[in-house]
Amino acid sequence: MSTKFYTLLTDIGAAKLASAAALGVPLKITHMAVGDGGGVLPTPDAKQTALVNEKRRAALNMLYIDPQNSSQIIAEQVIPENEGGWWIREVGLFDESGALIAVGNCPESYKPQLAEGSGRTQTVRMVLITSSTDNIILKIDPAVVLATRKYVDDKISEHEQSRRHPDASLTAKGFTQLSSATNSESEILAATPKAVKAAYDLAAGKASASHTHPWNQITGVPAASLTVKGTVQLSSATNSTSETQAATPKAVKAVYDLAAGKAPVSHTHPWNQITDVPAASLTVKGTVQLSSATNSTSETQAATPKAVKAAYDLAAGKAPVSHTHPWSQITDVPAASLTVKGTVQLSSATNSTSETQAATPKAVKAVYDLANGKQPADATLTALAGLATAADKLPYFTGNDTASLTTLTNVGRDILAKTSKQEVIRYLGLGDTSGYVGRRLSTRAFASSGTYTPSPETKRIRVTITGGGGGGGGCKATSNNETFFGAGGGAGGTIISIMTPTQNSYPVTIGAGGAGGVSATNGTRGGNSVFASLIAPGGEGGGKVGVTNTNGGNGGVPSTGDIRITGGDGGDGQSGNIGVSGEGGTSYWGGGGRAGAGGGVRGRAFGSGGGGAYDAGYSGTSMTGGKGADGVCIIEEFA
Q1: What angle do CA 345, 348, 353 make, to 5 degrees?
Q2: Which residue has the higher pLDDT, 389 or 442?
Q3: What's CA 192's distance to the chain center, in Å?
Q4: Is 353 inside any structural domain?
Q5: Residue 109, SS3?
Q6: Percent of the chain beyond pLDDT 90?
Q7: How many Cβ atoms from other residues are within 10 Å of residue 281's Cβ?
Q8: Which domain holds residue 465?
Q9: Among residues 56, 104, 186, 631, which is most buried (max CB within 10 A)?
Q10: Cα 586 vs. chain centroid, distance in angstroms?
Q11: Counting beta carbons within 10 angstroms of the beta carbon of residue 536, is it exposed (0 to 12), middle (13 to 18) or buried (19 or more)?
Q12: Nearest to 444 by CA among 458, 430, 424, 426
């Protein structure tokens, strides 16, 4: 059974609660309103900004978090006996700005006035479920509300608890025992003035925070080292290696005076003070002796500019690397042959047998032109060339590169004399006056809607078109007295028809398979498939004539075309408390989807029905029937 009475957050309330969570500014709910719904029980709507017909709005009497469920906020309002005269069918919660945060409906209740002879005080309670109560301030104004019975009972209970006086602790207030001890470690006793005075007198006899000591009273002072700060002994030695003493100014002066008598970092020496300078070689840098010789092989001397000039002048009088010679200066050039590279004489002859001359482009062109007009010699030509010609004989191949002769009849001569396929067809006596012979050209398939354009040679078309299959029925049951087995959807009808195309193009509409029923509802009907005047109807969805009777959908029944094939009916799903079949109807193209636990199986063959859904365990879960298969249109073209 579906829920009839419920409470929900309005869109405004949801937005304010989300904003409160994001900004950390809690939402303050302060008022509750009741109304009569305009005379009928209203359905709460998240888009509401006010009650349908508000009768009373006042501050909340109680607003608290449910101690049994921390995600529930309970709001209560007491309507006194002197107010009423109307029905209560709707309730709303408002924040401090007057915005409607939550709205709900409730069982109809009449609130009488005292003047009507009934002095009833009525409490209205509203439960609001939210993911987080941290973002809502539970705020009421005690000055303007009436106390509910529960509130009074809770306060009485709280007062009774207050007569039980707990002991004080570090975390809770309470009663405590006094103690004058000054060495106690107790954390549940309180010190007396006597204990405080004893501690004060002890502290007064101690040294003040700011006082001094002579050095001889200071003990435990560490000696300084590389790792520890401390006292240090001075030393004037300049050759000590101690790491525990400190140098005196005297030692520093002695070292400074020694350094002052040394040469500075940047200083010079005359050459005669430089010793052990190495002589330069191929492997060592050093001093070198100059030489102006141009025929020396020394590797320890350096050439002078004079030697370099002499070598340059000699090179300048020689030929450059890139230079030329006239042919008359080239000697000993060999003649070209089959075995030696060299000079060669050209020839334009095409009948020469010379092996020492080269052909000119003229000779090459003459040979090319001669060869270009010839048929390549291959095994096929060889086979044909081997046949002996004769009258009324036609050569043909009996195998790869093998040929023979057959007699050419008058019929063969007549056929060979025709200049078109149509002339040959007419000669053979095929086709009608329009030229139609029934030769299949191609096949076009449409699984979705589109446009068919006939091929140029097409004279006839054979159209096979099927409508969409119906969807299987759904189910939802907690016992066998409810709809626990949905029926199968019917298959789409099929038409087969021969047509003569008269248009340049035709729209093709493919019927979609019907959707499966959701929960305990029928599947939807499959769509019609249409081509020209042909209408292939879709199958009906799995039906439901009662809570415990689900009939299979009827197959589509065509009313146009040459051959009309009715689609198969879907299988019944449930008869009383007995499960039957629930299979989808079989189309021209194949069987439908089977029934399925947890959801019917969709039809696979074109135009087949979807299977029904069943729930043998009566889980109460909403289950969906299988979708019917889409239709199809097959167009065969004939010349």
Answers
A1: 75
A2: 442
A3: 73
A4: no
A5: strand
A6: 43
A7: 11
A8: 439-639
A9: 631
A10: 38
A11: buried
A12: 458
Q: Could you list the beta-strand ranges (E) of 400-470.
A: 402-407, 440-446, 450-452, 460-466
Rounded to two decimals, what is the model's pTM? Answer: 0.39
The string of pLDDT tens digits covering residues 573-629 is: 999 989 999 999 999 999 999 999 989 999 999 999 999 999 999 999 999 999 999
Tokens 């091929």 belong to residue: 455
Q: Which residues of 308-345 are buried (b: 16+ CB within 10 A; e: fewer)?
A: eeeeeeeeeeeeeeeeeeeeeeeeeeeebeeeeeeeee
How many other C-beta atoms can be found within 10 angstroms of the C-beta atom of residue 390? 8
Give the per-residue pLDDT at 277. 80
Does 62 map to a domain? yes
The tokens of 254 are what? 């002695």
* Mean predicted confidence (pLDDT) in 504-522: 97
Final residue of a structural domain among 137, 160, 183: 160
A 10 A CB-CB count for 165 gives 8
**Max CA-CA distance within the chain?**
155
On the question of pLDDT at 534 being above 60, the answer is yes
20 has a pLDDT exceeding 80: yes
Residues 6+ apart with CB under 8 A from 142: none
pLDDT tens digits for range 138-187: 444 443 344 455 555 565 465 455 555 577 887 777 778 888 888 888 88
What is the C-alpha separation between 512 and 589, in angstroms, rounded?
A: 16
Give the distance, in angstroms, between the CA of residue 81 and the centroid of all CA atoms in the same chain: 62
Return d(Cα 529, Cα 507) in angstroms, integer.
Answer: 11
Q: What are 632's two structure tokens?
A: 């199809």
Q: Pick from 160, 192, 214: which residue ends a domain?
A: 160
Question: Which amino acid type is present at position 593?
Answer: G
Which residues does residue 289 pair with via DSSP β-bridges, in sequence order?
Answer: 301
Burial (CB count within 10 angstroms: exposed 0-12, middle 13-18, buried 19+), residue 305 = exposed
Residue at 601: amino acid letter: V
Q: How many domains is the chain built from?
A: 2
Report the SS3 class of residue 600: coil
Q: Would residue 580 count as lying in a domain?
A: yes
For residue 360, give both structure tokens. 């000119």
Tokens of 596: 């399925």
Backbone angles phi, psi at 265, to 5 degrees: -60, -45
- The CA distance from 541 to 522, in Å, is 6
Tell me the β-bridge partners of 394.
406
Q: Which two tokens stand for residue 337?
A: 């042959």
- The candidate with the shortest Cα–Cα distance to 612, out of 551, 527, 545, is 551
How many Å separate Cα 140 from the centre of its chain?
Answer: 48
**What is the full DSSP assignment across 225-285?**
-SSS--B-EEE--SS---SSEEE-HHHHHHHHHHHHTSPPSS----GGG---PPBP-SSS-
Q: Are 632 and 606 in contact (CB under 8 A)?
A: yes
How far apart CA 560 and CA 532 sit, in angstroms, is: 11
Does some domain include residue 590? yes
**DSSP-derived pairing of the beta strands 345-347 and 357-359:** parallel
User: pLDDT, tens digit, for every residue of 198-257?
Assistant: 887 787 777 776 777 787 778 878 888 888 888 888 889 988 998 888 888 898 888 788
Instruction: Using alpha carbons, select from 399, 471, 445 the residue that is nearest to residue 637.
Output: 445
